[in-house]
Amino acid sequence: MRDYYIAGNWKMHKTRAEAAELARSLAGQLKDGKHRYLVAPSFTLIETVAAVVKGTNIRLGAQNAASEEQGAHTGEVSVLQLKDLGVETVILGHSERRHTYKEDDALINRKVRLALRHGFEVILCVGELLEEREAGRAEAVCEAQTVKGLEGVAAADLGRVVIAYEPVWAIGTGKTATPEDADAIHAYIRGVIGKLYGPDAAGRIIIQYGGSVKPENAAQLMAKENIDGALVGGAALKTETFVPIAKFS
Ligand code: PEP
Hints:
By secondary structure, the protein is α/β, with parallel strands linked by helices. It contains 11 helices and 8 strands.
């Protein structure tokens, strides 16, 4: 059985005081939660949030990491620096990194391999644009991003990889994929993992759905066979919206 895994991507929101308050409130309200939880604050908030979630059932994540360990990379943050702060998970290949900041599959793959080499869990985001969906290419796009993102990743490391299927047209737009459409793509991605790593690995890998997940739609999405959790953006910024998602029933 796969555990449900609910992750909050706080994007570029909150001051240290606001982040500490949200983390404290989540830690209190999720302490009896039955699923796996993660919050991914901005780099500048990580130390503050780390102090709050330490020893709780909430993992600490980062929203990105550099593709190199260290050196002359102005503005980048390395996995070594993240590890030093207690970060356990990095989100890589988020659609905002792919499309706004033009990160390509080769760069994302370098980041994935580096993060895994340093012992991190990786949430690899994949997902199609609206025009790609309309052209019937959603599966092909997700397959290519999954295959290229995982190139060179050993089967032994796959247990520390989570895939987040996030249709780009559903992120921050209020539009959600129907549970049936999302499940179909999740099943397809699971099949891609099966081709790469075999049926056992395909059965074990956690595939989160992301794209306007809200308290009102979380349970229907999670009820689908291939949907193992959620990567939540907007609704992760408030306890009132994240907790009902995290405690869906
Ligand atoms: C995200 O940023 O990963 C995301 C899914 O955002 P939202 O929930 O706001 O659509």
